[in-house]
Task: inverse folding
């Protein structure tokens, strides 16, 4: 009996180790892996906080006039009426006005395609026609380029009347805004 008791206690210790200690050790390994992920997330958060502070300092280094010009170039919202008025004011310098105005909100079109992994692009496409001589058109386009609002000419076509030196130009612009 004296020799059997230590052997029974040894078997109980081995069985206890297998059924009790081993699952606890598995939980400890899982918790260590979770801790490593949380440490990585904290490091990324600290890096993002540093970058945010850097960007805020950069923004604060801009003068008020520069921020106003930047807001004019890429506004936080699109005011299509103001955009049409700006383009019409430029056209008035050349004794003409814009006609047949067509607006397309690209963000609405593309966000409808979001399921196809197309990201929404904050842009408005404006199409219009102007009637002027070719020389005036080149100056008109230069004036649009020098306007503070960021705009891309994405389409230009023309029709002519043989009896006149002026043309009817159909122009399409794309302008952007931030959210």
Result:
């Amino acid at each position: 009996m004296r020799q059997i008791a230590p052997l029974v206690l040894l078997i109980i210790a081995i069985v206890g180790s297998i059924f009790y200690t081993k699952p606890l050790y598995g939980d400890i390994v899982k918790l260590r892996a979770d801790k490593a992920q949380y440490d990585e997330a904290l490091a990324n958060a600290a890096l993002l906080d540093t970058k945010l502070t850097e960007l805020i300092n950069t923004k604060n280094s801009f003068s008020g006039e520069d921020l106003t010009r930047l807001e004019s170039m890429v506004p936080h919202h699109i005011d299509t009426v103001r955009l049409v008025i700006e383009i019409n004011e430029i056209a008035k310098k050349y004794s003409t006005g814009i006609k047949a105005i067509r607006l397309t909100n690209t963000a609405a079109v593309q966000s409808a395609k979001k399921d196809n992994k197309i990201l929404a692009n904050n842009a408005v496409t404006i199409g219009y026609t102007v009637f002027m001589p070719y020389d005036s058109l080149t100056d008109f386009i230069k004036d649009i380029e020098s306007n503070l609002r960021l705009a891309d000419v994405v389409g230009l076509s023309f029709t002519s009347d043989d009896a006149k030196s002026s043309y009817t130009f159909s122009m399409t612009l794309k302008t952007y805004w931030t959210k």
Q: What stands out?
A: The two ends are 84 Å apart (CA to CA).
